[in-house]
Amino acid sequence: MSTFNSNENLWGCNLGNNTIEGVILKSAREPETLFSLQIPTESDLGYEHVLERVKTLLNEMQAAAGYQPARLGLATPGTLVTRTGLLKNTNIACLEGQPLAADLAARLGVQTTVGNDANCLTLGETRLGVVAERFPDAKIVFGILMDRGIGGGLVVNGQIVRGNNGITGEWGHIYLNPAEPHPCFCGKRGCIESILSVPALERFYKEICGTPRPLAEIEDRAEAGDSAARATLQRLTNFFGHALSILVNVLDPDVIVIGGQTSTINRLYTDGPHVIASYVIDHHFETPVVQAKLGDLAVAYGAALLLA
Ligand SMILES: [Zn+2]
């Protein structure tokens, strides 16, 4: 049986709009999960409350491990700007413009490294997940987080690429559809996120047939012949393929891995590659498009690996 060891364990958190997950991994070499816990974020109660929720989670982790870590990796939507130390482009409204890493370090008494959640998903799946298992020779991995928002991350040779402006992989805010009537949280119109996020897909379905339904149910209904559900999934697959073709034409990654709630929709893996092929140059596309395998904890694992 494994025991905690303050010299080698890696601690990671995924701070999302609805939940915060925390994990303790044995080590980067032996990434066995020693502890994991999820609590509600309650982000509608404001920034100070969210800081306190992270502290609550960390207290639980410390109680289990029996020690206080020296460092914590924390994933969240958006980008922490190195020059200013402020978080930008987050869809958790109360965190926008806040010095998140510094405030967490002060409140927790633990040095905190903040990373983008989709970057962490990609890192977690590359080092510990489906890429490590099935495509160990992959050099360029693009990861996509398709959930309440749409994020992306790029890992090259096992390392996150952050970019000159810290926004590498912000695939969700590529301009895709000028006819999209609903603005994105970022202030633009026609972003991939405003078309392919879970709320956007559910809204599209409701606009056709008048009945609100969760995405999982929409998928079931499409199989059963519901025409509005079929139209919703067709729209998903078409825009998904079109949007990814832009990425493939630029980066041509070795593997594309998809996580988040929408990643369970099977058509992304059956129809999706054909749509991508129809838009890429010369229509030749044989890159694996695969589902993430680390589940709800993938992002938290990646956050822990920020410290490795
Ligand atoms: Zn946007």
UniProtKB/TrEMBL annotation:
InterPro entries: ATPase_NBD, ROK, ROK_cs. It holds the Pfam family ROK. Gene3D superfamilies: 3.30.420.40. PANTHER family: D-ALLOSE KINASE-RELATED, ROK (REPRESSOR, ORF, KINASE) FAMILY. This is ROK family protein. It comes from Hymenobacter mellowenesis.
